[in-house]
Automatic annotation (TrEMBL):
UniProt keyword list: Aminopeptidase, Glycoprotein, Hydrolase, Membrane, Metal-binding, Metalloprotease, Protease, Signal-anchor, Transmembrane, Transmembrane helix, Zinc
GO MF: metalloaminopeptidase activity; peptide binding; zinc ion binding
Uppermost EC category: hydrolase
Family: Belongs to the peptidase M1 family.
A GO CC term attached to the entry: endomembrane system
Domain of life: Eukaryota
InterPro entries given in the database record: Aminopeptidase_N-like_N (IPR045357), Aminopeptidase_N-like_N_sf (IPR042097), ERAP1-like_C_dom (IPR024571), M1_APN-typ (IPR034016), Peptidase_M1 (IPR001930), Peptidase_M1_aminopeptidases (IPR050344), Peptidase_M1_dom (IPR014782), Peptidase_M4/M1_CTD_sf (IPR027268)
Protein name: Aminopeptidase
Length: 918
């Protein structure tokens, strides 16, 4: 053993060596290297980023500092639609919330040519990766004081679909026409003018647009005056706006001879609809918008605050629509309706208008504080879209669509790649990814559930209180729960319940085990975990939801008054029921956002349906079908039990249960098709025809169906023709041939056009005829159906050409690429070519569609969702893993790999069962 002195010396030497090593490691440029030591500001360089001019940038976060707040913008924009550039000048009045020497704001893809602060010229610092600019001042800006920052700048009109961008289209003569429009949500305003581009930085705006003669301009507010300038240009000045966030600012500049409009007055608000002149299909939108505005004025108890509301169809527009205050912009397919349009086309247009008008209150009047609570905007607008249509347009039967929406939201939220409704986001990609099924459909679903618990009257009073309290302000989820708690009474805490639905991802599985008159209820996280050995896929075992359980039984099951309500807030609880109850059905009409497993009780419910389907509501029958398929994917029930439940389906006549069963079976069929498992494909087809063939063959091919009939008919016949059912393909081909022979003048029922065109597109002459029809059609809903038919072709040459044409954006607009890829991927071998196309053109695709955007999400999931092999899983992982940018971190990429694993597991576990029971 060494002596104590030797031990101390040894320890000292070791510490000294370690210290020197640390100095060398942490100061690699010091005297131990040729480069010499750091300069005095080395520490600052490690903290602060470097501006484009080499100076330190005075801010270190993606979110802007709260010390400076804008209160008013004076904005002048001058677009040049010849050279596709624009110039701008913005004067921003700011208030100081805390003493500071710096002002930091956003600007992207522009050159600031002059900067003034309080009429003194200043220098601008820019940090491009964060799209931020800043000024540093020699003295403090004092708390409570106001100052004016003025910036002049030049920029190019965007060639993608965000910011201030060039939208083009071909008129009926084939000539290219251009206009300029905006799309600022979520992060695009900074590409049009320097601004504090975060939703909490609300301000007023005075917008002036300089334009060439012969053009018109539109903005959020009514035009106040037009001035002819000495250089022959005109300047339109709009009224000072209400207080709003930057992402809601909007303007459009277009040739006045190319745009047409019509308007009507609704309670002091002039509602106008604009479109390209040769597509004067705006009457339906005007009537629909007027009725819905009137409904919302009454329902919310707060009158729409502007005296004008423009609905504008933009020819080249990526989103379905955008809720800019006073100037809502739409895709042409979501606003324009012709007399020949189907009821389903009208349902789509009505839904989008209802959604965007609801935003004028939820999002515009009251805005979320940050994008983590995007659901407050989108979830509410989606919920109100269905609520308003149910009240104002009951003939559109929107309930089935909302039920289907809730099912699809659960399918997405069941994956480990999902996220809480309210979740932390920082980067631009994370913000873009919030525009997904969770924010929209799940948000609407949990509001629907809360409404069913509170009652419609209390729920409405609660949201009116919320709107009044936070009028012209920003709010968070907690603020909504506080407002609803005021009307809920003491029966339960709204905040305590709803936090469990917004702050943790996923939803619960409720397992029902009955023993005589005692029922044991257990909740757990419903998570389709494809790989239990993967730590990132571990279920949230301690997750608990406050579940408003509803149930009916065999003695009373159809009327809303039959449902019993209880709250499951713990892991387990018990319920006592009367003697003689034959069966229980939980989650009445699927009002709750949870799945129910009946353990030993599936047989009783199956027997009840086989005896008399109408013993349950159509919504309850559809939810049983949805739940048992979901449970089979989870491994909780065998596929034999699924087949057994579907034994009743031949007696089914309602749209919702039939469509849910067919969608679930078609998903399995597509997986088998992609694996080219021919024996099982044949058996699956026989099974589907045995259960639905008679219903398919009974569908008529003439006009005159209701909304439900149209929806059922179009879906049934599309599947029948996809499966090459002879009765379907013969009828479709007969109608297509008559249409061609009539020089495309023969009328085809609107809801049947897609299936008829898709059958016609399977031949070379038919495909070319449809391409010609697409080229010259002036009806956007018709063009969309033709495009989907063209994409359904089995000819590789055609589908590859179509994808290339859409990416190029000449004959086929680039905005259509996601739906083209989605349609191609439904067929074999199209999905393989689509995947190869995405890999080969990834860089070009991400120039058109931002990382994280809904369009890119759709492209990724479409091309990968039907893979079910180890080889494809590795290929997907390797491709996205090799990307230099942030593609591998996208949530949609994680969803893709998780879905492939899930498909692999399901196919491995159920192939033998499928073989035995189909």
């Amino acid at each position: 053993m060494p002596s104590a002195r030797t031990l101390v010396v040894g320890v000292f030497v070791l510490v000294l060596v370690a210290s020197v090593a640390m100095v060398i490691y942490f100061l690699p440029k010091c005297t131990f290297t040729k480069e010499g030591c750091h300069k005095g500001n080395a520490t600052m360089e490690l903290i602060y980023p470097i501006s484009t001019n080499g100076e330190l940038f005075p801010w270190t976060e993606l979110r802007l500092p709260a010390k400076v707040r804008p209160v008013h913008y004076d904005l002048l924009i001058h677009p040049n639609l010849t050279d596709m550039t624009f110039q701008g000048k913005v004067s921003i009045t700011v208030e100081i919330a805390e003493d500071t020497k710096t002002v930091v704001l956003h600007a992207a893809d522009m050159k600031v040519t002059r900067a003034m602060f309080q009429d003194k010229e200043i220098k601008i610092l820019e940090y491009k990766p964060w799209q931020q600019i800043a000024i540093k001042l020699p003295e403090d800006l004092k708390k409570g004081k106001s100052y004016v920052l003025t910036l002049e700048y030049d920029a190019n009109l965007s060639t993608s679909y965000d910011g201030f961008y060039n939208s083009s289209y071909n008129d009926k003569t084939g000539a290219t026409r251009v206009l300029a429009a905006t799309q600022f949500e979520p992060l695009g305003a900074r590409k049009a003018f320097p601004c504090f581009d975060e939703p909490a930085f609300k301000a007023t705006f005075l917008i002036k647009i300089k334009r060439d003669p012969g053009y018109i301009s539109l903005s959020n507010m009514p035009r106040n005056k037009t001035t002819k300038l000495p250089d022959g240009l005109f300047q339109d000045e709009f009224e000072k706006s209400v207080i709003m966030s930057t992402y809601l600012v909007a303007f459009v500049v277009a040739n006045e001879t190319q745009f047409t409009s019509t308007g009507t007055n609704v309670s002091g608000t002039l509602v106008s609809v604009y479109s390209v002149q040769e597509k004067d299909q705006i009457k339906y939108a005007l009537e629909t918008g007027a009725k819905l505005l009137e409904f919302y004025n009454t329902f919310f108890g707060i009158k729409y605050p502007l005296n004008k509301l423009d609905l504008v169809a933009i020819p080249d527009f990526l989103a379905g629509a955008m809720e800019n205050w006073g100037l809502i912009t739409f895709r042409e397919t979501t606003l324009l309706v012709v007399n020949e349009s189907s009821i389903l086309d009208r349902q789509l247009v009505t839904s989008v208008i209802a959604h965007e008008l609801a935003h004028q209150w939820f999002g515009n009047l009251v805005t979320m504080k940050w994008w983590n609570d995007l659901w407050l905007n989108e979830g509410f607008a989606t919920y109100m879209q269905y609520t308003s249509i149910t009240k104002v347009f009951p003939d559109l039967k929107i309930g089935d669509e909302f039920l289907s929406t809730r099912f699809r939201a659960q399918a997405s939220d069941a994956l480990n790649s999902s996220h809480p409704v309210s979740t932390a986001v920082t980067t631009p990609e994370q913000v873009e990814e919030m525009f997904d099924s969770v924010s929209y459909e799940k948000g609407a679903s949990i509001l629907h559930m809360l409404n069913s618990v509170l009652s419609e009257d209390k729920f409405r009073k609660g949201i009116i209180a919320y709107l009044n309290t936070y009028n012209s302000k920003n709010a968070g989820s907690e603020d909504l729960w506080n407002s609803l708690s005021q009307v809920a009474g003491q029966s339960f805490s709204v905040a305590e319940m709803m936090k469990t639905w917004t702050q943790q991802k996923g939803f619960p599985l409720v397992t029902v085990r009955r023993n005589g008159t005692r029922v044991r209820l257990t909740q757990e996280h419903f998570l389709l975990t494809p790989d239990p050995t993967n730590s990132t896929a571990t279920p949230v075992s301690d997750a608990l939801w406050h579940i408003p359980l509803t149930y009916v039984n065999d003695s009373c099951s159809l009327d809303p008054g039959c449902k019993q309500v209880m709250f499951l807030t713990e892991k387990t609880m018990t319920l006592d029921i009367p003697e003689g109850v034959a069966w229980l059905k939980f989650n009445f009409k699927n009002e709750g956002f949870y799945i129910v497993h009946y353990a030993e009780g599936w047989r009783e419910l199956t027997d009840a349906l086989k005896g008399k389907p109408a013993v349950l509501t159509p919504e309850d029958r559809a939810s049983l079908i949805n739940n048992i398929f979901a449970l089979s994917r989870l491994g909780k029930v065998s596929f034999r039990q699924v087949i057994n439940l579907l034994g009743y389906i031949r007696k089914e006549t309602e749209t919702a249960p039939v469509m849910e069963a067919l969608l679930q079976l078609d998903h399995i069929y597509r997986l088998l098709e992609k694996k080219q498992d021919l024996p099982l494909i044949a058996r699956m087809q026989v099974f589907i025809f045995n259960h639905f063939g008679e219903l398919m063959d009974s569908q008529v091919w003439e006009e005159g169906a209701s909304v439900s009939q149209e929806n059922l008919r179009s879906s049934l016949l599309e599947l029948a023709c996809n499966y090459n059912r002879e009765n379907c393909t013969e009828n479709a081909k007969r109608i297509f041939d008559k249409w061609v022979a009539s020089n495309r003048t023969e009328r085809i029922p609107g809801d049947l056009r897609r299936v008829v065109y898709s059958v016609g597109a399977q031949t070379e002459p038919g495909w070319l005829t449809l391409l010609e029809a697409y080229r010259y059609s002036r009806v956007e809903a018709e063009k969309r159906k033709i495009l989907q038919a063209l994409a359904s072709s089995q000819a590789v040459m055609h589908i590859v050409w179509l994808m290339k044409a859409a990416l190029e954006g000449s004959l086929v607009q680039t905005q259509e690429l996601p739906i083209i890829i989605d349609t191609i991927c439904r067929n074999f071998p199209g999905h393989l070519y689509a995947w190869d196309f995405v890999k080969e053109n990834w860089d070009e695709i991400t120039k058109k569609f931002p990382l994280g955007s809904f369009s890119l999400q759709r492209i990724i999931t479409s091309t990968t969702s039907q893979f079910s092999s180890k080889a494809h899983l590795l290929e997907v992982q390797n491709f996205f893993g090799s990307l230099k940018e942030k593609g591998a971190q996208l949530r949609s990429v994680r969803e893709a790999t998780e879905t492939i694993k899930l498909n692999m597991r399901w196919m491995d576990d159920n192939r033998e069962t499928l073989w035995l029971w189909l």
